[in-house]
Amino acid sequence: MSKYPEDEFDRTDGLGLPAGVHRTPRSAWSKTAPFLVVVVLCAALAVAAVYVLSRTPGSPLDQSSASPSASAPVEDPAAEDPAAQDPAAEDPVAEDPAAEDPAAEDPAADPETPAEPEAPVADTSVAVRVLNATGRSGAAAGAADTLSGAGWSDVSADNYTGDRLNASVVWYQSEDLADEAQAVADLLGIPASQVTLVPELRGPLSVILAG
Fold it and tell me: What are the Low complexity biased-composition ranges (predicted)?
């Protein structure tokens, strides 16, 4: 027996219609389905509106979507060009001219450097007289032996009879004997200041030992 009171839907009057249809209990799905449909439609409309606005030029959504590209960092041309970052990497290292020219490292190797003049060679065949004015016996003979040992071939020893001298000297008779006179003075340790030209000299060279 129905728990609902009888109404007009229960009276079919023999028309063959089902009775009490409105009283059939409804399921939970049939109750919530309309709400779910409304929610889905609203979500679809919201997505469509956002899409349309984002595609519309000048809209706030269009500006916000374009801002990432506008704020993208500007590329530095120097970062793509290694030579612009380091100018020294493009220029070769300057070469040292001295490294290419061996003559610049060693001045002695320069072929244009003038050689030192050779000492003049004395003529050891020139006659040399050694005179003793020291008062010591054998002084002239000892000096003569020194000259002979150095290659002088015409050397004689004797005593000096002239004026008194304060220092040993070497006298030579002519300008062409200056080299020989200096060579004799060097062998006997007589200073160059005591080598003197004496045109009146009896022989080519004379050594007078004094002191």
Answer: 64-87
